[in-house]
Amino acid sequence: MSSSSTTWDYAPAPESAPAEIAEAYGLFIDGEFIEALDGGSMDSIEPGTGQLLTRFAVAGQADVDAAVAAATRAQPAWAALPARERGKYLYRIARRLQERAREFAILETRDGGKPIKESRDVDIPEAAKHFFYYAGWADKLDYAFPGRRAQPVGVCAQIIPWNFPLLMAAWKLAPALACGNTVVLKPAETTPLTALRLAEVCQEVGLPQGVVNVLTGAGETGAALAAHPGVQKLAFTGSTEVGKKLAEGVAGSGKRLTLELGGKSPHIICEDASLDQAVEGIVQGIFFNQGHVCCAGSRLLVQESVQDEVVEKLAWRMQQIRVGDPLDKNTDLGAINSAGQLETIQRYLALGQEEGATLHESGQFGTLPEGGYYQRPCYFENVQPAHSIAREEIFGPVLSVMSFRTPEEAIQRANDTPYGLAAGIWTDKGSKMFELASRVRAGVVWCNTYNRFDASSPFGGYQQSGFGREGGRHGLKPYLKLTSWGAEG
Ligand code: NAD
User: 294 an active-site residue?
Assistant: First the structure.
């Protein structure tokens, strides 16, 4: 036991399974990996080391045209397949993800910086679950919406962020394919690897050419894809800023749109809550995965009578979090996804102090690995509701602690935000739980737990956190034209 620590120091336990990474990757169009037509490419940096990991192609307008054309050609035959056959392809993808889970987990961790235990235990199994779940719906669409005729929408453009790269791809691809649509997917520029490996899986399972296409690149590629006239439906997960631009661009085009955007989700801890349990939920909800979770519980509202006790427990628990090499199985908090994101987090840490809040940062477990992008977990006290750190999404392991006196005040403070993605309520009283949950404006409300997901439950936001739902039966709807029997869609 180290003299400075209150917990055991472990010997390093790096993940050692092989996961090959090529020097460069092409675009996946019409069932094949090809170079970008203008030869453009970008570097992918490993956040844990700050070193070059690989290079990947950047799709230009001509590549976007080719991918949309491939998806358009493939769509009628894909939709015409017996639905149970479409379901079988999804099952096969899910099984291959399970079989190659360890390899996918390593790629996700090296590419994105998240701890291996999280990629291994959450991201990859949940991604497989989504394919299994929607495989089951493929031949039951008419039962999902009784009395309505369900038909595919057509070609779907799907643009995803870097925080859950494979899982976000699965959330989007699985329902779209189950419903008979074809897809052009654009992963984030800092995390393209697992989407490209998923394209390989599509080849392995014999998915017909053009049904799934993967275009790598940055915002310009995304913008060209979103604006393409051959796209019938746009699904976007990412920042509110980009979501707003896309909503403006799509307006009047007849394209369908769903947006899953940012958040500033509150936890409400009442004085009668089990405080140890609540603190554990808060720690998991904001510090693990580096706070790179859209629904991260980044605002803590705690009842005044238990504030000191909660903060004391939080400070102790935060010291036990191991920040370090993402590939080490002991690591709780890995690397920040990019140098740019680390800068954003550090800018907010400085801004919070300038605004008058008090910063507490964990100093445990010696030095951080060299070269990578690391940020220790921290929380702010003396936060006013008007402070930027209480209002803006930081997307890092940073918690703002505020207090309330009455449940009424808790609701008013929880709802004092332009967002509305998630909330956590901690109380021992069932009636209080229902009362608070029904009045918090958030797409998901967890009670006495946090960050629980299931392929069968819908997820999505209110206000500037977006609209539309992913997951569950609700997640099918954006990918279907629903008409009365006999009417044309
Ligand atoms: P981002 O908006 O910068 O990028 C998201 C994706 O959009 C990337 O693939 C990017 O290349 C692309 N993009 C960028 N500019 C574009 C443009 N003008 N047109 C089209 N595409 C463009 O977001 P990010 O920084 O990658 O991700 C973090 C954000 O995502 C956070 O705000 C987080 O809350 C949000 N998020 C939300 C959910 C949810 O379900 N609500 C889930 C995960 C992440």
Answer: yes
214 lines ligand 1 (CB under 6 A): no
For 282-310, how does the pLDDT look when each residue is reduced to its tens digit (9 = 90+)? 999 998 888 988 899 999 999 999 999 99
Do 241 and 127 reside in the same domain of the chain?
yes
List 294, 378, 393, 470, catalytic entry:
294
Q: Give the rounded distance of the alpha carbon of 86 from its chain centre.
A: 26
Could you give the CA distance from residue 398 to residue 59 in angstroms, rounded to a whole number?
35
Amino acid at 170: A
* Pocket of ligand 1 contains residue 239 by CB under 6 Å: yes
Q: Give the range of the structural domain holding residue 252, as residue numbers without chain letter.
A: 24-261+463-484
Is 270 found in the same domain as 219? no
Please say if 260 is a catalytic residue.
yes
How many structural domains does the chain have? 2
- What DSSP assignment string belongs to 313-344? HHHHHHHT--B--TTBTT-SB---S-HHHHHH
447 lines ligand 1 (CB under 6 A): no
**Across residues 132-156, what is the average pLDDT?**
95
Using DSSP, state whether 8 is helix, strand or coil: coil
Residue 436 has pLDDT above 80, yes or no: yes
Give, rounded to a whole angstrom, the gap between the first and last alpha carbons of the chain.
67
